[in-house]
UniProtKB/TrEMBL annotation:
Keyword presence, Electron transport: no
Cross-referenced PROSITE patterns: GNAT
Keywords: Transferase
Domain of life of the organism encoding this protein: Bacteria
Name this polypeptide is given: Acetyltransferase
SUPFAM superfamilies found in the cross-reference section: Acyl-CoA N-acyltransferases (Nat)
Pfam families in alphabetical order: Acetyltransf_3
Chain ranges of the N-acetyltransferase domain: 28-188
GO MF term set: acyltransferase activity, transferring groups other than amino-acyl groups
Amino acid sequence: MNALVTERARIVAKPDPGPCPDIETKRLRLRPHRLSDAAPIAESLGDFRVARMLARVPAPYHQQDALDWLNRQAANVLPDWTFAVTSGDDVHIGCVGIELRHGEWHVGYWLNRFYWGKGLASEAVYAAVDRFLRRMPEAVLHSGVFADNPASLKVQEKLGFKITGCSQIYALARNTMVAHIETRLSAEDLRRPA
């Protein structure tokens, strides 16, 4: 059996968390994305202050980029969860994703810049990760932040993520390699933010 078939079989054999659920928190609603989310996603990620902190987001970011991404999400062929983070009136303000890459679960998130500094990222990431780990208690979640993003590292540390190392990764929006602090979380380490 060749290596690609073996790797695919190993990934397929892993447990699946099921469909992306709806989650209500004190201030937010996390729900699966819709195609109508394209405009607010493009508006948020079109802000270089947001895009520069994400590895796989191009700059400039256009509504067609959002539609292309949303169409891949709508195909629903992967076990990934990608939540639209919305305010009480269903205004799209960000995203939390938990995706299977190379046989490991990875957490990523972003918020529209106008919602930074209010504890909403911690609230949203905790809600998504808590629900995921209830379905997949044996999973280990990997994440990380660019070294020049201490606010995001603080979010992860509040939730119990532990630093495991540092590497250099390519940041598409910046068009350069950037220092990346790597983190991980298991179910027993998860903490509810204050």
